[in-house]
């Protein structure tokens, strides 16, 4: 759960072209920028479910899922992540299935798109362009 083996870690660093702490620091902005790419984010998001769950379990512990969502959506700036997590703690209080994990990404994507559209339309109305 939430661990890389030494060979996985070293292989990941090699794939990034990192062989020192300084090069690792230099690569951080690049790795963060990859989260802005929708396809790359989806890959990382889907990977995170299996990586974070306990070995042999089908679902992800609620506390672990909440931590992962807060971490993953920090770069995406999804404004409802805290509300979602609070709702789950107050009402759901169960492990998170892969289906719930996957559907949340689709829901967040739709909300972000609607939010962008709303802001765009709001700007047109505000400045008399509509």
Automatic annotation (TrEMBL):
Q: Which GO terms describe its cellular component?
A: plasma membrane
Which organism is this entry from? Amborella trichopoda
Identify this protein by name. Defective in cullin neddylation protein
Q: Which residues form the DCUN1 domain?
A: 1-130
Check the record and name the PROSITE patterns matching this protein: DCUN1
Q: What is the annotated role of this protein in its UniProt record?
A: Neddylation of cullins play an essential role in the regulation of SCF-type complexes activity.
Pfam families in the record, alphabetically? Cullin_binding
């Amino acid at each position: 759960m939430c661990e890389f083996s030494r060979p996985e870690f070293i292989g990941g660093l090699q794939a990034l072209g990192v062989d020192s702490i300084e090069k690792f620091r230099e690569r951080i902005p690049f790795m963060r920028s990859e989260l802005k790419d929708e396809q790359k984010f989806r890959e990382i998001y889907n990977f995170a479910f299996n990586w974070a769950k306990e070995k042999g379990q089908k679902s992800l512990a609620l506390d672990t899922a909440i931590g992962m969502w807060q971490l993953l959506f920090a770069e995406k700036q999804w404004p409802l992540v805290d509300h979602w997590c609070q709702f789950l703690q107050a009402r759901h209080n169960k492990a998170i299935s892969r289906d719930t994990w996957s559907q949340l990404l689709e829901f967040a994507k739709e909300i972000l798109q609607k939010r962008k559209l709303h802001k765009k339309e709001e700007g047109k109305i505000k400045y008399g362009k509509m």
